[in-house]
Design brief:
There is one protein chain. The protein is an alpha+beta fold. Helices cover 52% and strands 14% of the residues. α11 packs antiparallel against α12. The longest helix is centred in the first third of the chain and has 53 residues.
C-alpha cells in the first residue's frame, strides 16, 4: 500500500479525495447531529402530549366498562396505556411497570417494518425494567409546562430509557389515574447501513472520477518523463504534443523549446569546431612546408613532431565534439555480442584482452559510440595494466560493462582529473607511450549520453573501470546460447566495424 501511495499519482489523488470526503461528512454530521436529535425529541414529545390529551378526553367521555378496550385500540408500537386506581409516586416502580407494558405485544398488529428489515416494534423489545430505572433514576416526577399540557386535569411527567422514553400520568375526573408510556429508540450514531451505503457509493463515484482525472494528469507527465529520459540518452524524438490544460500545455511547450535549444547548441558547437579544424589545416600545412627549409635535422624533426601532435589534437578534438553531437540513431543490439566482438578485435591486434561471457542482453543504445567507449577502456587496461579482463554484469538498476586490469591503478586524487580532455597521467606527452588524452573523456561522454556514467574503482591490484548503463534501455528477449563467432557476426552486422 505504501509503495503504491508513493509511486502512484492516482492513489494519492484518490486518497486525498476520500480523506476530504470523510472529513467533510464527519464535520457535517457533528454539526447537524445535535440539532437533528433535538428536533426529533421535540417532535416526539409534542406527539406524545398530543396523543395523551386526546386519550384523556376520550376516557372522560366514555363509560368505564369500555375504557380498557378503548385504551387497547389507542396503543401504537411505541406507546402503551393503562389505568391505575392510585396515584403513582415511586418513579422507579412506575418505570418498571412501563417497561413491562412496552414489552407487551399489541393484538392484531402487523409488523411490516420488521418483515422488510426496517425498524419496528422490536426497537423497544430490549428495554428491560432495569434499564428503564437505571437510565434516569435521578429524574423524578415533574409538572409539565402549560405549553405542552393545557387540559385542566392534573398531570405528572417523567423521563426514562435514557430520555428516549416519556411517561405521563393524568388524574381523571373520577379519581382514576391514566398512565401513558412512550418509548422510541433514537439512534445515537449515524453510521447505520443506509448512511454507510451512501458513503460507500459516494466514495466509489469519487474514486472513479479521481482515477479519470489522475490519468489525464499523469499521462502527459509520463510522456514528458519518457521524452526527458530519451533526451538525456541522446535520442532524437519528435516534439511533445502541445495540448491539454494550460499548465500541461505550457510544460510541453517549455520542454520542446529546451530540446530545440539543446540540439541547436550542440549543432552550432560541432559546426564551429569543424570550421576551426578546417581553418587550422592551412597554417599547419604552411608550418610543415616551412620546416623543409630548416637545415638542422634534429630541430626539423622536433618541429615536425610538434606539428603532428597539434594536428592530432585538433582532429581528436573535432572527433570528440562530433561524437558528442549524438547524430547516431539509437537501436537495439545484443550487448554481449558487441562487447565480445570488441575484445576479439583487440586480441587479434595482439593486445592481452580477455572476455568472459555472460547472459544474453538486448539493449537500446548507439552501438558505434558504445563500441568506441568500451574499446578505449580496454585499450587503456591492456596498455597500462598489462592485461584486460572484460565482462557484462547486472544490478538492480544498471547494466555494467566492467574492464579490469592488474596495473598500478590511478591515485585517488586523480580519478576525476583523468576524465578531463587532453589530460594524461604520463606527462612526457610522448605519443609512443599514449594518445592525446581524450580516451577517457570520450568514454565518459558516451556513457553519459546513454544516461549512465563511468566509475573507477580499485581492483587490488590494478583498476576496475565500469561503464554503468541504466536498465531502462534493456529489451527483454528469451535467453539463448550462441557461439562467439555468431555473436560477433551479429554485432558487426548491427554496429559495423571501426577497423
Amino acid at each position: 500500500m505504501i509503495y503504491w501511495w508513493r509511486r502512484s499519482l492516482a492513489a494519492q489523488f484518490i486518497g486525498f479525495t476520500l480523506l476530504a470526503l470523510v472529513v467533510s461528512q464527519a464535520l457535517t454530521f457533528s454539526i447537524s447531529w445535535d440539532e437533528r436529535t433535538k428536533a426529533l425529541h421535540a417532535a416526539m414529545k409534542s406527539e406524545f402530549f398530543s396523543r395523551c390529551a386526546s386519550v384523556t378526553r376520550l376516557m372522560e367521555s366514555m363509560p368505564k366498562p369500555l375504557r380498557e378496550q378503548a385504551l387497547l385500540a389507542s396503543e401504537t408500537s411505541y406507546s402503551r396505556f393503562w389505568l391505575s386506581p392510585l396515584e403513582p409516586t415511586d418513579t422507579n416502580a412506575w418505570r418498571s411497570r412501563a417497561a413491562n407494558e412496552l414489552a407487551r405485544p399489541i393484538e392484531n398488529f402487523i409488523d411490516l417494518a420488521g418483515k422488510y428489515g426496517m425498524r419496528s416494534n422490536s426497537d423497544i423489545g430490549h428495554l428491560t425494567s432495569g434499564e428503564a430505572m437505571a437510565a434516569n433514576a435521578a429524574d423524578g416526577w415533574v409538572t409539565p409546562p402549560s405549553v405542552l399540557w393545557s387540559l385542566p386535569q392534573p398531570a405528572k411527567f417523567v423521563y426514562f430509557g435514557d430520555r428516549n422514553g416519556y411517561g405521563l400520568v393524568v388524574k381523571l375526573n373520577d379519581g382514576v389515574w391514566l398512565n401513558t408510556a412512550f418509548y422510541k429508540n433514537v439512534a445515537d450514531r449515524w453510521w447505520d447501513m443506509k448512511s454507510l451505503t451512501s458513503l460507500a457509493t459516494t466514495a466509489l463515484i469519487l474514486s472513479l472520477i479521481g482515477v479519470f482525472i489522475a490519468s489525464r494528469i499523469a499521462r502527459p507527465l509520463r510522456r514528458l518523463a519518457v521524452s526527458a529520459e530519451a533526451l538525456g540518452r541522446g535520442e532524437n524524438l519528435p516534439p511533445l504534443p502541445e495540448e491539454g490544460p494550460d499548465d500541461i500545455k505550457r510544460t510541453a511547450e517549455a520542454f520542446n523549446r529546451m530540446q530545440e535549444r539543446l540540439h541547436r547548441f550542440v549543432d552550432d558547437r560541432t559546426r564551429m569546431l569543424a570550421a576551426i579544424g578546417h581553418d587550422l589545416r592551412t597554417p599547419l600545412t604552411s608550418l610543415r612546408l616551412r620546416t623543409e627549409f630548416v637545415k638542422d635535422a634534429d630541430i626539423q624533426q622536433k618541429m615536425l613532431s610538434t606539428i603532428d601532435e597539434l594536428q592530432s589534437m585538433t582532429e581528436a578534438a573535432i572527433s570528440f565534439a562530433r561524437g558528442e553531437s549524438t547524430a547516431e540513431e539509437t537501436r537495439a543490439i545484443e550487448l554481449e555480442a558487441l562487447v565480445g566482438s570488441i575484445c576479439d578485435d583487440l586480441a587479434d591486434l595482439g593486445l592481452p584482452v580477455e572476455y568472459i561471457e555472460g547472459p544474453k542482453t538486448t539493449y537500446r543504445c548507439r552501438p558505434d559510440g558504445l563500441r568506441r567507449a568500451v574499446r578505449n577502456l580496454a585499450e587503456n587496461a591492456a596498455r597500462y595494466g598489462g592485461h584486460a579482463k572484460v565482462y557484462v554484469c547486472h544490478s538492480a538498476s544498471t547494466i555494467d560493462i566492467v574492464v579490469e586490469d592488474n596495473g598500478p591503478g590511478i591515485p585517488e586524487d586523480m580519478k576525476e582529473k583523468v576524465f578531463a580532455p587532453f589530460f594524461r597521467l604520463e606527462a612526457s606527452r610522448n605519443r609512443g607511450t599514449g594518445g592525446v588524452g581524450l580516451g577517457l573523456s570520450i568514454a565518459r561522454a558516451v556513457a553519459r549520453q546513454h544516461g549512465g556514467d563511468i566509475l573507477l574503482q580499485p581492483n587490488n591490484p590494478g583498476l576496475k573501470a565500469i561503464i554503468s548503463l541504466p536498465q531502462e534501455g534493456q529489451v527483454k528477449t528469451p535467453s539463448s546460447r550462441l557461439s562467439r563467432r555468431k555473436k560477433r557476426a551479429q554485432s558487426l552486422k548491427l554496429a559495423g566495424q571501426e577497423h
